[in-house]
Amino acid sequence: MEHWVRWAAPSAIMISIAVPSHATQYLTLEQAQQLAFPDASRFVEAHVMFQPSDVAAIERRSGEKVRTRGQQVWRALAGDRPVGFFIVDYVIGKHLVIDYVVALEPDGRVRRVEILEYRESYGGEITNHSWLEQFVGKGSRDPLMVDRDIRNISGATLSSHHVTEGIRRVLAFYETCLR
Amino acid sequence: MRPAFVSARRARAQLGTFVEITAGGATPPAVHAAIDAAFDGVADVHRLMSFHDPGSDLSRLNRDAPTRPVTVHPWTHAVLRAALELHDASGGIFDVTVAPVLQGLGRLPGQAEARVPHPHLDAGPGIEVLAARRVRFRHPGVAVDLGGIAKGFAVDRALDILRERGMTRGLVNAGGDLAAFGRPGECISIRDPRQRGASLGCVRVEDTALASSGGGEAVVVDPRRGEPAGGVLGATVTARSCLLADALTKVVMVAGEGAGPLLARYGAAALFLSVHGAVHVTRGWSAVVCRAS
């Protein structure tokens, strides 16, 4: 048909062009904290290491498997007044590891959910460092989140239901350990 | 001192996928406020047009429109009007009333009243868009799913919001359905539906929209046969709006080369990969394609 042309490059060659494995960072931890709690004057670390009973309670409440030994939590304070919790979590999708944050009101209602970063995973394994290590040393001197070297992908069918499941687990964590 | 103008890129889990929004050309608080507002616009579209949410405009339609006209939000009205126009222009290939078929395939929840054959194959469009934002179904078995068009519409609305907020550049990407304005644009990689991590090439997206179909779990139904389309593995379309690009990918998935006149009519360009492994592109497409590095 006159509207169409066969692409000159044979597809056998095209499929051999690999897209570089990629990771995209959207926000640093501190940027996400500021966006979630613009009124907060400080964020106090309140990381939790799970007891076996915590894991059992979170899994019972959420119906989701707990994969980590603890949870990274900050208390957001405006002066001395608590304005909420800032919780960092990750979920493993079919091909991606997604780091995200859940900001909670002081009473545990979800205030905001935002993706921090995603990166490729292979066979469900995390290829980067362990999640507890990945934020070590990150701060305001980190590069900007807009990485002009990173390409968007069209045709990616990324399911976000893992994030929904993760939020359910994070809320069960709140009920179990923070409330 | 002149305040520093920045760009920011953020992502949220929305529309059953990840929505990524990039904006630039203002101070950091203004950029982030614009991105927040754009995410809210996407959430509004989702609330109105979700098949799964019983409170959505769409669910109200599917419940009540077979028996009486239902008044819908202007956005839902606009999407349904566009869907009807595309249904007509594509000779019935683009059809938002394939929900019963998708239900029969287990792709949408709920029991289809009539599985196959499609209830109104010979009866023209199954929906009527009336004046004063009212919509009525022509048959009791009609059910609408806007999965083939609402995502593109959400991208367009989010981009509008960024423009209204004074951004000088913006890009909204909802799981591969995307649109951008301003300089610099971006080079978007087109995924090879046959092989994870491989690319068919990339397209420069600048003041245009791009959508892809195929290669994932989503199914495109050929409404003429009431079953999934089979001849095309994956299709990518560039068009002036993401709604148009989103809808036209479905037509290319079903019609392949037969979609040529329709694409030309809308000033759109396309690339598709046939089941035989051949890559077809519309004339003019190559100008915007660069090879993957």
Number of domains of chain A: 1
Beta strand % of chain B: 25-35%
- Our estimate of the beta-strand percent of chain A is 25-35%
**What is the chain-wise order of helices and strands of chain A?**
EHEHEEHEEEEEH
Q: Poorly predicted ranges of chain B (pLDDT <50, ≥5 residues)?
A: 119-123
Instruction: Let me know the number of strands of chain B.
Output: 16
Q: What is the CATH topology of one domain in chain B?
A: T-fold
Question: Cα-atom Rg of chain B, whole angstroms?
Answer: 19 Å
Distance between the termini of chain A: 66 Å
Q: Biggest sheet of chain B, in brief?
A: 8 strands, antiparallel
Task: Sum up the overall morphology of chain A in one term.
Answer: globular
DSSP strand tally of chain A? 9
Largest protein interface, residues of each chain: A-B, 44 and 69 residues
CATH architecture of one domain in chain B: Roll
Radius of gyration of chain A (CA) equals 20 Å
Summing up helix and strand content along with how strands pair, one would put the structural category of chain B as alpha+beta
User: Major sheet of chain B: order of its strands?
Assistant: 1-2-6-7-10-13-14-15
The low-confidence runs of chain A, each spanning 5 or more residues with pLDDT under 50, are 10-21, 122-158
Task: Please tell me the overall pLDDT of chain B.
Answer: 85
